[in-house]
Design brief:
Elements: E1 4-6, H1 11-19, E2 24-26, E3 33-37, H2 41-51, E4 60-62, H3 78-87, E5 92-97, H4 104-107, E6 112-116, H5 121-130, E7 134-135, H6 150-157, E8 163-165, E9 177-180, E10 186-190, H7 196-200, E11 205-206, E12 228-233, H8 237-250, E13 255-259, E14 269-272, H9 277-293, E15 298-302, H10 309-320, E16 323-326
Helix pairs in contact: 1-5, 9-10
The structure holds threonylcarbamoyladenylate and magnesium ion.
Magnesium ion (MG) binds near residues 137, 138 and 146.
């Protein structure tokens, strides 16, 4: 199959492909998604095939209008409405009780469904033009870092999907927060673009750190580049990073340091996470893929403070890491 690369003025072509039951990759404000008609089992099956995704890892349905929700969920609590009013469109996914019309293949057989309204203008136009709820996971091969550019999507999906809309790099760079709204208090299943601090200022929320079970599918390996990732955290991280760099050099390994700009050093290839955590969020997946393009054996990463979006980044870095050293 030849994968058509479309530009944002060709949304109609992408919408027609979606209505015909094909898979189309599209940008969101977080990462590129791999979309298909959520109500068409055969179309959704193509997503699982293209990604090599395990069948018990459910998908998020993307919508642009609350009028679409009546067909998908049986209802929602008033506190969920507060969150919809505040964070939609945006990087917040709500898990709600599903309507029978939502195929089991989308939800991995669960009786709940995950929903989000993306804020990227191209995603909104596509959802409007298709006139369908669109199931879309991140558009990477399962287990690879999520794609934040069309180039990343093509690395993983070229020849496997009908089309991609290339709208350049995504803004946020890290996936949506997945919040289970079927329990009280609500529970964060996956930290993401909307932080625990933002959610808990409005409604009662239990953080994943407080022993909540993670999202289904979280047991699978995630975000793994080919290079071995060594994540170093804690007060004495810098000293440990020195040791790690020396050890790599002694063994003749091709290594890089990934850290905020302040930690740049001249004696090792540097993967620059930027000046602060919000820049880092938009760069980490690109940097992990770059590590592979450079043929690195090891990526040593300096941990970030686990507050706000820093917590989300550390969640992803822990999943990418072969080893976490807490100093
Ligand atoms: O930002 C995002 O969320 C991106 C863009 C494309 O929208 N999508 C994304 O999808 O990250 P994916 O498939 O890579 O991750 C979806 C997460 C998984 O952890 C999955 O287990 C969880 O959402 N999820 C989906 N349906 C669920 C449900 N019914 N109950 C609990 N967790 C669910
Ligand atoms: Mg994903």
């Amino acid at each position: 199959m030849l994968t058509q690369v479309l530009n944002p003025s060709q949304i109609d072509i992408a919408a027609t492909l979606l209505r015909q039951g094909e898979c189309v990759a599209f940008p969101t404000e977080t990462v590129y998604g791999l979309g298909a008609n959520a109500l068409d089992e055969k179309a959704v099956a193509k997503i699982f095939r293209a990604k090599g995704r395990p069948a018990d890892n459910p998908l998020i349905i993307h919508c642009h209008s609350r009028l679409q929700l009546a067909d998908l969920v049986t209802g929602w609590p008033p506190q969920a409405e507060v969150l919809m009013d505040t964070f939609w469109p945006g990087p917040l996914t709500l898990v709600l009780p599903k309507q029978p019309a939502v195929p089991d293949i989308v939800t991995g057989g669960l009786n709940t469904v995950a929903l989000r309204f993306p804020s990227h203008p191209v995603a909104i136009s596509l959802l409007q033009a298709a006139g369908l709820p669109i199931a879309a996971p991140s558009a990477n091969i399962s287990g690879r870092p999520s794609p934040t550019s069309a180039q990343h999507v093509l690395e993983d999906m070229s020849g496997k999907i009908a089309a991609i809309i290339d709208a350049g790099p995504t803004g946020g760079g890290i996936e949506s927060t997945v919040l289970d709204c079927t329990v009280s208090p609500f529970r964060i299943l996956r930290p993401g673009g909307v932080t625990y601090e933002e959610l808990s200022s409005l409604v009662a929320v239990k953080d994943t750190l407080e022993g909540a079970p993670p999202a289904p599918g979280a047991q699978y390996g995630h975000y793994s580049p080919v290079a071995r990732v060594v994540l170093v955290t804690g007060d004495r991280a810098k000293a440990e990073i020195n040791r790690q760099i020396d050890a790599c050099k002694a063994q003749g390994m091709k290594a890089a340091l990934m850290a905020l700009t302040d930690s740049r050093r001249p004696d090792i290839h540097f993967l620059d996470m930027g000046r602060d955590v919000s820049v880092a969020a938009s760069r980490i997946y690109h940097l992990l893929r770059q590590g592979d393009a450079l043929g690195l054996d090891v990526i040593i990463i300096e941990g970030l403070p686990e507050k706000g979006i820093g917590r989300t980044i550390m969640d992803r870095l822990r999943k990418a890491a072969a080893i976490v050293i807490n100093t």
